[in-house]
Amino acid sequence: MGLKAARDFCQRFATGMHAGVDLLRMLDSEAKIGPPRQRLAITELRGEAAAGVTLADGMKKQPKFFPPLLRSMTHVGEATGTLERTLFKLAEYYDQQLTLRNNFQRAIAWPAIQFVIGVGVLSLVIWIMGIMNTGGRQMADILGMGLTGTSGVLKFWGILLLFFAFVTAAIVSFQKNVGGIQNAIPLLYKIPGIGSPLQTITLSRFTWTLSLALGTGLDPIRAIRLALDSTDSDFYRSGGDDAEAAIRGGSTLTEALQATAVFPEEFLTQVSVAELSGTDAESIAHVARDYDARAKMATRVIAGIATGAIWLMVAGFLIFFIIRIVMMIAGAYQDALTPI
């Protein structure tokens, strides 16, 4: 279940509960919405509910479809009698995450278009060099890489495909923590320009989830584990046991987060100050709002860096072409002036 589907499901279900609609009727309605996979999952959930199984237990039987946060929060809401409020809060959380993602996609859309245009122009130049002749000879190789004509274009595209395949493999390997590569996250955060924005976006997701979990009455141990899991990073998940040990030892929320050794000092200080002014749920909610604003700014920063990188690349190509053409013209004049 994607972010948009999860948001809409929570919003509709919470609204239906507020209006007093019967549970099975709501599930019947939900089973008619969305792609086939979603309709099938809701139909199976409806069957479980008709047999007397709780929503949370029914969702747990389909872990590949219903996200962990939705399953856990539904369980808490049913256990505490606050399912309606919990689902409204979940809808707000998923909407925030969806907005953040959409803002980033919109921000990098133009740089991506610029890149595609640049590749198209370069491909056209390579193709033209292969089909045009001057004085009965093929045009000189402006690129100096032996890429001319249709075969040159295909080779150029092949190079690009290999590059993007490498980047994709690196991203997937990082997400799956192949070889424990996520242990290098602290080094990633030290990269000028993008390190701090990436960390801010991750902390925003963590604080939103933690605020939601604590606000619905979930105990701090499970709330912290859920929030760590929401980062989709084994680096952050590794701090779960340390946080649990700290909580069981009587530590405060700030001390528990500090025990994980995965959070920056600035973040811990902010949580500590907020914690002095209210309950855990209230303090984290305040921090979550602050990091939400920071994450939106971080998204714009990353998009700006992407735009700048693409502009530099396009400018580099243009400068390269100009230098090559000037060198070719200068070489031609030199040959013409050389005595026979």
From TrEMBL:
Keywords: Cell membrane, Membrane, Transmembrane, Transmembrane helix. The chain crosses the membrane at residues 108-132, 152-174, 301-333. It is found in: Cell membrane. It comes from the Bacteria. Gene3D superfamilies: Type II secretion system (T2SS), domain F. InterPro entries: GspF/PilC, T2SS_GspF_dom, T2SS_GspF_sf. GO terms for cellular component: plasma membrane. It is a multi-pass membrane protein. Residues 9-129, 209-327 form the Type II secretion system protein GspF domain. Its main location: membrane. PANTHER family: GENERAL SECRETION PATHWAY PROTEIN (PTHR30012), TYPE II SECRETION SYSTEM PROTEIN F-RELATED (PTHR30012:SF0). Belongs to the GSP F family. This is Type II secretion system protein F. It comes from Allorhodopirellula heiligendammensis.
